[in-house]
Amino acid sequence: FWGPVSNFGIPVAAVMDTQKSPDLISGNMTFALCIYSATFMRYSMAVTPANYLLLGCHFINECAQLTQGYRYLQYHNWGGKEKAALAGAVDASKEKAKDIEAKIESAIRK
């Protein structure tokens, strides 16, 4: 009982990591954790009696790792990095335009 309960720290951390920047994701580690969780999901059903708590733990972790894997691929392979850089450039341009607008307004008031 306590092994699977303490093992829930892994999926809790994985779910919390889905809120972080995708440039921090390790593709190799995500792949390894997908294999790990799939293996232990199978193991949890192979033992007698079936360990549904362990199955639930690794099912949640598998879903979180697949989400992280998608985010990794989207960011590094499918143009997410370029989109993020472009969005940053657009935001910087908007700030610069606001600064110029403020300077023009102050010059007009004088």
Write a brief caption for the model.
One of its GO terms (cellular component) is mitochondrial inner membrane. With 110 residues, the protein is mainly alpha-helical. It has helices at residues 2-7, 9-17, 27-46, 52-76, 80-109.
Radius of gyration: 23 Å
Secondary-structure class: mainly alpha
Contiguous uncertain segments of 5+ residues: none
Mean pLDDT: 86
- Percent of residues in helices: over 70%
Number of strands: 0
How many helix segments? Answer: 5
Biggest sheet features: none
The span between the termini is 76 Å
Order of helices and strands: HHHHH
Cα shape: elongated
Tell me what portion of residues adopts beta-strand conformation: under 5%
Organism: Podospora appendiculata
Main location: mitochondrion
Keywords: Membrane, Mitochondrion, Mitochondrion inner membrane, Transmembrane, Transmembrane helix, Transport
Subcellular location: Mitochondrion inner membrane
Kindly describe this structure:
This protein is mainly alpha-helical. Helix content is 82%, strand content 0%. It has 5 helices and no strands. The protein has helices spanning 2-7, 9-17, 27-46, 52-76, 80-109. The longest helix has 30 residues, at 80-109. The model has no long low-confidence stretch (mean pLDDT 86).
